[in-house]
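Subject: sequence -> C-alpha cells, single chain

Hey, anyone have a minute? Need the predicted structure for the following. Not urgent.
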Amino acid sequence: MTERTSVATKPVWVDLSSPDPAASREFYANLFGWEVTVSPDPQYGGYALAKSNGKDVAGIGPTMAPDSPAAWLIHLGTDDVERVARDVEAAGGRIIAPVMQVGDQGRMAVFQDPTGAFISAWEAGAMSGFAGGAPNAFGWAELSARGIDRAIPFYEQVFGWTHRTSPMGEGQPPYIEFLLDGESIAGGQEMQPMVPAEVPSYWLAYFAVQDVDGTYQRALAAGAREMLPPMDFPGGRFGIVGDPQGAAFGILRMNPRPA
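Reply:
Had a minute. Here:
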C-alpha cells in the first residue's frame, strides 16, 4: 500500500461546473444564503467563490467544454498531487485532467476511479479548502458505484483509507464507510437497482442544513428537479435534487451525537 502523506486525504473542497454559471450562482445563493463573488482575475476563467458567514464553502465556475454536463466535483487533499496521479494509474484509475497549476491557489488533477466515478486531488497553495463550522456548507461525500468492490481497494491504495461495512436491510446493498485514521470521512454503496442503466458511477456532494424538508421544497420552487424526497436514515435525514442546470446534490441533517 502506498504510504499516505501528512495532509489529510479526505474531502477538502467542492466545486460546481455549470453551463450557465450566472444562473447557478443565483440558485445556490438564494437556496443556501451564500455570498458568491466572481474572481476578477482572468486566469481563473470566471470562477466564483461562495462564502457562508464569511467562510469559504464552495466554488462555482463554467464547464470546460460547451457540451459538458453540470456537475459537482469533490476534491481530496494531498501534499503531492503528482504522486497521487501516479498511484491512480497504478491502482487501475484513469487520469482525466493531468496535474495543473491553479494560479497561486494550488495544484490539482482530475481522474476516474476503476468504476468510472470522477474525483479530484487538491494540493493546497494559498487556498487550503473549505472552512469548518460554516452553515449550509459541505457535509458528506458518497460514492454510488457500479462495482463498489473495485472502488474500495482503489481508495485504500491511493489515499490510505480503510473501510467498514454496515448491513442496510433485506434487498439493500450494504453501506460502506470510508475511514481515515478511524474517522468516518465518506460513504459508498453499490448503485441502487432502480437507477437507470445508463447512469454511470458518481460521487455525490451533500450540504448540511438545519431544515432538510424546507430546503428541499425551496430548491424545487426555484427550478430544481426532484430525485429523492426527504427521508430519515439512522444518522439523520436527507434528500437529493438536481439543480436547474442538471447537477445533482444532496441536503443532509445529521442527528446530534450522544454525549
